[in-house]
Design a protein that fits this description.
alpha/beta, Rossmann fold, two-stranded parallel sheet, 8 helices, binds NADP nicotinamide-adenine-dinucleotide phosphate
């Protein structure tokens, strides 16, 4: 994925993985559109990337959970013909037992992690298909596969991102557009503070740096992996998991209930 005079859109570019994606995409020759709520941080990053790489960088301040604000981003994705890459990275986490959780906070998380990602992908796809090239990267999480107490809503949102991406990959199999799902484990970013979780309680060997996580995600993309799990030593383990799922498929919809359910 190296190109000139093309634009990459990075959501959640003001911090963490999104900032690293923006820097690497600029290094790969892309102009950038950086999206998040914090304008000052986006402007600082944009200035740094412009002076370091000479790329053109636009800042779009938007709360992706706000209907009017996401509409501005969708319009840009629909109409800017230079756009070749969308990194759906903006996201947040919530960790709380569901019975004591705030339903409005869960709905807001679903809006950000699920709805906005779906809307932005829907906005960009027709143009990418028409132009005959394009890449969408959807940031899921290892918690899409590892379900823990207190993580039902977060794991649910990230499970959506994985399933959605895999279904989309089927749909786009014969198209020139690539869609990758990335499932990082714990990465040292602000997301944990924002979610009120102290990362110091995690073993150091379970936490990856932002740079390593994003470098691995790009290596997976360059290798043509549909699903990249940065820390997974053996890709064959993921492939076995997928194969097991596919083994279920022929029997998931049959006229007759399974024998064990019949009297
Ligand atoms: N860090 C991890 O351990 C980890 C592991 C697996 C997956 N992930 C996923 O990786 C992605 C990036 O997370 P991160 O760890 O880099 O977190 P982060 O450092 O907290 O960054 C999150 C980014 O999303 C933006 N954002 C949050 N709410 C937004 C909203 N309503 N509208 C627009 N932008 C919003 C934030 O910017 P503003 O505050 O300026 O809006 C920020 O740029 C997320 O999807 C996360 O779920 C992270």
């Amino acid at each position: 994925m190296t190109t000139q005079n093309k634009t990459a859109v990075v959501t959640g570019a003001s911090a963490g993985l999104g900032t690293a994606y923006a820097q690497r995409l600029a290094d790969r020759g892309y102009d950038l559109i950086l999206v998040a709520r914090n304008t000052a941080r986006l402007e600082t990053l944009a200035a740094d990337i412009r002076s370091r790489t000479g790329r053109a960088v636009d800042v779009v301040t938007a709360d992706l959970t706000d209907a009017a604000q996401i509409a501005v981003v969708e319009e840009r994705l629909r109409t800017d013909e230079s756009i070749a890459v969308l990194i759906n990275n903006a996201g947040a986490a919530l960790f709380a037992p569901l019975a004591s959780s705030d339903a409005a906070a869960s709905a807001a998380l679903i809006n950000l992690n699920v709805t906005s990602l779906t809307r932005l992908t829907t906005a960009v796809l027709p143009g990418l298909i028409a132009r005959g090239h394009g890449t969408v990267v959807n940031i899921s999480s290892a918690l899409a596969l590892n379900f823990l107490p207190g993580g039902s809503v977060y794991s649910g949102t990230k499970g959506y991102v994985l399933t959605y991406t895999q279904a989309l990959q089927q749909e786009l199999a014969d198209s020139p557009v690539t869609v990758q799902a990335v499932l990082p484990g714990a990465v040292r970013t602000e997301i944990w503070d924002r979610a009120g979780v102290d990362l110091s309680g995690f073993p150091d060997e379970a936490i990856m740096s932002v740079d390593d996580a994003v470098d691995a995600a790009f290596a997976g993309l360059d290798a043509g992996e549909p699903v990249t799990i940065p820390s997974l030593p053996e890709i064959s383990d993921w492939e076995s998991y997928e194969k097991a799922r596919q083994t279920l498929v022929p029997n998931l919809s049959l006229r007759v209930p399974a024998a064990r359910y019949r009297g």
